[in-house]
Amino acid sequence: MNKLQRARRRTIAWITLPFLLLAVSVYGLAYGSVSIPLQEINQILLHNDESTYRTILMDLRLPRVLVGLLVGACLAASGALLQGVMKNPLADPGIIGVSAGGGLAAVITMVMLPQLSYLLPVTAFLGAFLSAIVIYLLAWDRGASPVKIVLAGVAINALLGALTNGVMVMYSDRVQAVLPWLSGGLNGRSWHHLEFMAPYAIIGLIASLFAIKPANLLLLGDDSAQLLGQRVELQRMLIILLSALLAGTAVSVAGLIGFVGLVVPHVIRLLIGEDYRFLLPLSIVGGGTLVVLADTVARSWFDPIELPVGILLAVIGAPFFLILLKKRGNFG
Predict the structure, then answer these.
(1) pTM for this one?
(2) CA torsion angle 298 302 305 308 (round to 10)
């Protein structure tokens, strides 16, 4: 793919993705077990209408759509940064144990300390964040190479997964409360969840924009980045911790949603190239779009059953990603 083609694709992406995000958000507000006409949505949002649809829109769907946007944006940004810093297009938040750490902390809270269930978002976030720190420390040996981090992440993932299963077996009578969270979903997400995650998500997403320059320089290789005056190990650690903050924020509210941090940045990269000035913002928009769309489909297409969005994304994500890998050469 030459520079002209890449520039054209970037322009198209900048135009289409925000439009898709807006369209998907409106779709998420309008459709579900009860459909709300578009004129009613406009009336409620702009004129404080007191129709029978107001409770559905303002108390149920609007916070759920906003939470989905932030969850998708955080997961996609986290995946994009990890793929760059590890020089591995198949990396995602799960590789460094973030999801497993958050999952274990949440399971312990729900089955062993149910009286503290109101602290679930906090404990899941802390578990995800601490697991990233532990993995980086384990990978450190006069530097932490991407390979060491991935290997440490795989090992810690296995350990944390085994501990999670062990806790669930020991408290099998309480497992039903855990399964929906482990599946990943936005059912029941409200203004409370949005208020909790929004500060962390906004801070993390803004901070990720400041990581664009070091992420681009790390793509040149450690030696080249050092010659350009970059403190490679410090920047790598900070980007990994930032990725953990983003993924941990999403996990703390939405559970173990996979696929987003892996495929969205990968697809954007195949379309417009490696430059993080374009890759990161477009991944943020694409991640929010995907999660809101998938959640709307999961709760409206299978009525009266509400399918967890994490299951739907896993079912459609794996074959879709395999097709992308098969046709990668077609993207240039």
Answers:
(1) 0.89
(2) -20
